[in-house]
Amino acid sequence: MPNLEGKIAVITGGSSGIGLATAKRFVKEGAHVFITGRRQSELESAKAEIGRGVTTVQGDVASLDDLDRLYATVKTEKGVVDIVVANAGFVEHAKIFDLSEAHYDKTMDINVKGVVFTVQKALPLMTRGGSIILVSSIVNVKGIPAHGIYTAAKAGVRALARVWAQELKDKGIRVNTLSPGATETPIIRGQFNSDEASDAAKKVFASMTPLARLGLPEELASGAYFLASDESSYVTGIDLPIDGGLAQV
Ligand code: NAD
């Protein structure tokens, strides 16, 4: 029997990259997934790609009203949540010399506030316990120039997993972070002005990585599956880096 048979999962930012690969893997393992994203057209393409076992809900993770609408839909359709993957994320480059309040607010709103309320608002529906996966980043233990506020956000998310693992243990809910290294998804191209600059950055990341390449979204989805399923029944409060060794050696 697939290991997530009958499970209900919510995946934010589920229309591309790691979120989409995770949605596909969870459905393959028997789950029904609710995926969110800001653009309806991208959600529709993702839904077609996933094929079955998926509901889309358009919304911004930084909007509490949108999150209320998301969980109202989940409640009406399924009545319960077993797995939350707080995956939606945003990064743009800014060094300390020139970062703005708008940069700070947007980075923190999506990467921290979005995670906090995605999780808090799921809890009333997590009546049979479950697994919460917060997508952090290997920057939570690195110092990469121009990633200051993003790093503070992702390190904050890793810290939240420690606290919530304690606060939610009596409800039978495990909480862990999953930390990608450089992974082949649209978020990398979005940080550069041209394909050439993005490709050059990928080469640098590959050269810094012991396994000498970028990760694939499916490799991150394997980690999400491990943390979501009973395969990780004795695992809570950890950070699981899937990074080809980038931040490990
Ligand atoms: P991606 O761009 O494919 O996915 C990010 C998703 O988040 C997108 O679908 C995007 O539309 C969505 N999103 C952004 N802002 C949102 C908002 N306000 N509301 C709702 N959805 C929003 O990139 P990805 O690599 O799959 O990113 C997934 C997670 O992995 C992110 O949290 C990212 O920070 C993290 N991460 C990625 C890498 C990498 O190299 N790809 C490395 C470390 C961490």
Describe, in plain words, how this protein is organized in 3D.
The chain has eight helices and seven strands. The chain is α/β, with parallel strands linked by helices and 249 residues long. The chain has a single domain (8-181, 217-242), classed as NAD(P)-binding Rossmann-like Domain (Rossmann fold, 3-Layer(aba) Sandwich). Strands 3-2-1-4-5-6-7 form a seven-stranded parallel beta sheet, sandwiched between helices. The longest helix is centred in the middle third of the chain and has 22 residues, at 101-122. The chain is globular. 43% of the residues are buried. The structure holds nicotinamide-adenine-dinucleotide. Nicotinamide-adenine-dinucleotide binds at residues 12-13, 15-19, 36-38, 60-62, 87-91, 110, 135, 137, 180, 182-183, 185-188. Nicotinamide-adenine-dinucleotide (NAD) is lined by residues 12-13, 15-19, 36-38, 60-62, 87-91, 110, 135, 137, 180, 182-183, 185-188.
